[in-house]
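Chapter summary example: a protein plus MTE.
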Amino acid sequence: MIDGYNIRRRQLLQSLMAASAGCLTWGLPDLARAANAITLPFENGLRELTTAFPQKGEMLLVRSRPPLLETPFSVFDQGVFTPNNQFFVRWHLASIPTSIDARSFRVRVHGAVQHEVVLGLAELSREFERVEVAAVNQCAGNSRGFFKPRVAGGEWGNGAMGNARWTGVRLKDILDRAGVKAGAVQVRFNGADAGAIPATPDFVKTLSVDRARDGEVMVAFAMNGKPLPFLNGFPLRLVVPGWYSTYWVKMLNDIEVIDTPDTNFWMAKAYQIPDTPNANVSPGQSGVKTVAITRMVPRSFITNLSDGSVVDVGRPQPVRGIAFGGDAGVREVHLSADNGMTWTPAKLGPDYGKYSFRRWEASFLPRQAGQFVLKVKAVNDNGVQQPDKPNWNPGGYMRNVIESMTVVAA
Ligand SMILES: Nc1nc2c(c(=O)[nH]1)N[C@H]1C(S)=C(S)[C@@H](COP(=O)(O)O)O[C@H]1N2
Ligand SMILES: [Mo]
């Protein structure tokens, strides 16, 4: 049957293959050219704006090898979905393939399974039910640059996040084809990247069998209707809606079902947060039990104004932005124009599902000249909202606070 859906299906498969007919190649750019820059509001916040990376528009350069590219914050004012060419980029390891041939690319499913399965992109696209989810992909270290006292790690502003429509197949369906053996406890994911030297622990991440088989976790081959950009994991990546991006393994080519809990570096040592409310500890506090970071928490941002913006006295000022609920939908967004003393509910934009950004809008009337402290907070469907004071932990993970900015009425 040829309906719109099937045509799109064929087109997507064709564009996936075309993206690498003769391989998709890229090289690390030559960064010698001088460029514009932006200063993020924290120490050492100067960031070059670069357009030198393949399939990427203007990005904030955090680091070039391996690439860490941040989305300029103004992009979030332009729509609820983050364009592929300005979606942030984060890689841990220096050795990223510079070419991938979609025709010969395979993902292998092995370990504690009834029978090993090896799947190409055409099989994934044709033989499995296609699913789609709108979901926020946010680095666990997003906003780390704002941590005070400062912590080690990539110094992101608020742009190590993005929202996209992800298209792919259910991980559950892939695992069912292989047949997970009784007694299996976890599923481990590995991508085509590797460390520059063998001693570097390969980047692998693990989910429990239950999470892996919940029907929500997806192996995606498209983002906003297009094949994944190379730097965002072409041709396949894991999508774990509601959880931090550290689990969203890119260039996914290996899925291993294991029967003992994984103790590799990236699960047991890295990405650990204090097992405390909001992952918060005092600087210097020791002896705190840690757990692997998983679920995201609600956040909300103003996108049409920035710190120091000048607004008109006596005229209603529209304020708009984005919110997301973390691992649950956005129930409410509230705006304050008096430093949090009083709050008014914002009007929510279209709902693309509980894991998506949600746009919101409100307005405030600056009655007299002077400074106004604007604050925004979201409440998710579980009743969770941002805390008044920022959390802190030594890894600089899960930054969360009611965001505020000062605007000047004149
Ligand atoms: N193969 C692979 N996948 C990976 C990583 C990586 O280093 N290698 N980094 C993870 C982390 S920590 C983040 S924040 C996201 C970034 O996804 P993006 O580059 O598409 O924005 O990829 C995740 N998946
Ligand atoms: Mo990350």
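Key point: Residues 90, 139-141, 245-246 surround molybdenum atom (ligand 2) (CB under 6 Å).
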